[in-house]
Amino acid sequence: MSNGEGFMRSAGNVFRDVGFPRSEAEQLKIRADLVIALQSAIRSRGLSLARASKKLRVRPSRLRALMRGRIEMFSVDSLLDLLSGLGLTVDVVVRKSGARSTPA
Q1: What is the DSSP string of 35-54?
Q2: Residue 53 is part of a domain; what is its CATH number?
Q3: Ramachandran quadrant class, 87 (left: phi over 0; alpha: psi -120 to 50; beta: rest)
């Protein structure tokens, strides 16, 4: 939907905005959010690729792909395992479709 200035209002999910079907866009957004959390945790701890790779028990090439944002290479399960390997947990919030801040 245009705001009158040539810009479109976001659906709140960039993948949906660029045309992915709703269910696929939600999956991609979840994976992207998890990848961003992993990237942030690795960087904030000052872990080198080699140290992070060893700590997480993944090949350096796979971790390099993660750091470059290659979300298509990782399932939600594998991302959750990697987050756990860094001592992090994930909280899940389920909302009604279209709701932005009110949990279901």
Answers
A1: HHHHHHHHHHTT--HHHHHH
A2: 1.10.260.40
A3: left
Q: What is the pLDDT of residues 52-102, one digit of tens each?
A: 999 999 999 999 999 999 999 999 999 999 999 999 999 988 888 766 655
The rounded Cα 47 to chain-centroid distance in angstroms is 19
pTM: 0.79
How confident is the model over 17-35, as pLDDT tens digits? Answer: 888 888 888 899 999 999 9
Structure tokens at 15: 């993948």
> Does a structural domain hold residue 73?
yes
Q: How many domains does the chain have?
A: 1
Please give the radius of gyration of the chain, using alpha carbons only, rounded to the nearest integer: 16
Structural domain harbouring 70: 14-85
Asked, for residue 41, whether it belongs to a domain, the answer is yes
